[in-house]
Amino acid sequence: MHAANILESKAGVQNPAQTFQEGGPMPVIVIANPKGGVGKSTLATNVAGYFATQGHSVMLGDIDKQQSSRLWLGLRPPAAVPIAAWDVARDDVVRPPKGTTHVVLDTPAGLHGKRLKDVLRIADRVLVPLQASIFDIYATRAFLDQVMDQGKDGKPALGIVGMRVDERTIASEQLQQFVAGLGLPVVGMLRPTQNYVHLAARGLTLFDVAPGRVARDLEQWRDICKWLG
Ligand SMILES: Nc1ncnc2c1ncn2[C@@H]1O[C@H](COP(=O)(O)OP(=O)(O)O)[C@@H](O)[C@H]1O
Ligand SMILES: [Mg+2]
Question: Which ligand 1 atom lies nearest to the CA of residue 35?
């Protein structure tokens, strides 16, 4: 069984949260947006890279048939700080490997309904990448409503990351206003840069390379890292 099926697995259907409680408290960060190509996998890999370089035992998993995280992990050089994938046990239930302290979950485009609900139930934090276009904002609206509806008791905590945003533009202001109007935090704004493309192609994150090479981007991640705790 693939990690993509975790929520359909036996343990998953009965109580998806159970899978994540074995080793005590373990923050689960979910990256989600129903639109494709907005930067979910880019955020997920970099969040995993951040935790890993902080010395945590990180698992990066896909709730995604596309399995982009697994592909990316396959590109990761052996010398880089390790990031684990799902363990698929003999009973076909997927679990974070033993010793995992932080779980980062990448999700597919179109995630909605019960499947989204199941993922939200195990999430401590949900990070939503959002591009500064009116079309992306409208496409994301219903999704955010559902997440907020579920998170009335404050869990999962929801944060927006402006993706490929030039902070000097009107589009960036519109994104800020839209998100503020929902009462949600914009925890960061990431500029468009090929750094993300080039690093991903080598299985790396901003946090794996000499800081001087990606100083502007690390600066933009400061508040996101703070929000992640
Ligand atoms: N800030 C950015 N600047 C430039 N390219 C980006 C940025 N964020 C993501 N990308 C690129 O955009 C494409 C789609 O991003 P991806 O993370 O795969 O989106 P998703 O997982 O939501 O489909 C990828 O090629 C990725 O490298
Ligand atoms: Mg993806």
Answer: 22
User: Is the distance from the beta carbon of residue 193 to the nearest atom of ligand 1 less than 6 Å?
Assistant: yes
Cβ neighbourhood burial of 149 (10 Å; 0-12, 13-18, 19+): exposed
Q: How far does the centroid of ligand 1 lie from the alpha carbon of residue 201, in Å? A: 11
Residue 134, domain member (yes or no):
no
- Protein residues within 5 Å, CB atom, of ion ligand 2: 40-41, 68
From residue 134, alpha-carbon distances to 89, 130, 137, 177, 194 in Å are 44, 10, 5, 12, 23
Does the pLDDT at position 10 exceed 70?
no
pTM equals: 0.91
pLDDT tens per residue, range 15-62: 344 455 544 579 999 999 999 999 999 999 999 999 999 999 999 999
* Number of compact structural domains in the chain: 1
Domain enclosing residue 12, as ranges: 3-123+191-224
